[in-house]
Amino acid sequence: MIERRPFNKLGGEDHGWLKAKHHFSFADYHDASRMGWGSLRVWNDDEIAPKTGFPPHPHANMEIITYVREGAVTHKDSLGNEGRTEAGDVQVMSAGSGIRHAEYNLEPGTTRIFQIWIMPRQRGGSPAWGSQPFPKADRSGRFVTLASGFAEDTDALPIRADARVLGATLKAGESVIYPLGKERHGYLVPASGAIEVDGVRIDARDGAAITDADQVTIKAIADSELVLVDTQ
């Protein structure tokens, strides 16, 4: 089953410095039918104005993955970690038993990100943060695992969840097959471009909620940049 969730029908808010669209219930947006997808709890499509950002605030018991689409985010947290993650790269924060962090766009232009929250396989544990580059050329025509809770994914950023976050870039006309599995949940969003997922058209920033599928075939209608979450 593939359910298209059009970008223009997502919940969201415009705070001036932050324009946010929510694929699932978040903050003041509540939809009882969209509380998550498998262990995926949040997928926010954020646009952050230059020289602004999220001041220090707490998190606990969540795996928080930030995929930077344009610009860069600068991270600081209560563990003393600091880092700048730029377009195409990924950062992961395992909130564990609790952490405070801030995220700023210190760039001269707008920063655009996907922020993805996945529920951990168990509560607690020491908080952690990491960032890693993932060159788009390495993802050409195929999915590359960006973050993973599985030990075999040695090149990915680690998360504490039975899940993977993957990225791919496809040229118009290219196809890729992803072996999801009938017991898994997939959520796929094109950061740019347009695709068909088993014949269902998904445009840029739309969501595709996928379930009960051994595998899915994704065909690019236009040059496309894809982000996929595969959860239990």
What does the model show?
This protein has 232 residues and is mainly β. It has 2 domains: 2-133, Sandwich (Jelly Rolls); 137-231, Jelly Rolls (Sandwich), CATH 2.60.120. 0% of the residues lie in helices and 59% in strands. It is built from no helices and 20 strands. It has strands spanning 2-5, 11-14, 18-22, 40-48, 52-59, 63-70, 72-77, 82-86, 90-94, 99-105, 111-118, 128-132, 144-148, 157-158, 163-170, 175-178, 181-197, 200-203, 207-213, 216-231. The strands form 3 sheets. Strands 1, 13, 14, 15, 16, 17, 18, 19 and 20 form a 9-stranded mixed beta sheet that branches. Strands 2-3-4-11-6-9-12 form a 7-stranded antiparallel beta sheet, with no helix packed on it. A 4-stranded antiparallel beta sheet has the order 5-10-7-8, with no helix packed on it. It starts with a strand and ends with a strand. The mean pLDDT is 97.
- Within CATH, the superfamily of the largest domain carries the name Jelly Rolls
Record field, number of beta strands:
20
Counting structural domains, the number is 2
What proportion strand? Answer: over 45%
Describe the secondary-structure layout.
Layout: E1 2-5, E2 11-14, E3 18-22, E4 40-48, E5 52-59, E6 63-70, E7 72-77, E8 82-86, E9 90-94, E10 99-105, E11 111-118, E12 128-132, E13 144-148, E14 157-158, E15 163-170, E16 175-178, E17 181-197, E18 200-203, E19 207-213, E20 216-231
Parallel strand pairs: 13-14
Antiparallel strand pairs: 1-19, 2-3, 3-4, 4-11, 5-10, 6-9, 6-11, 7-8, 7-10, 9-12, 13-15, 15-20, 16-20, 17-18, 17-19, 17-20
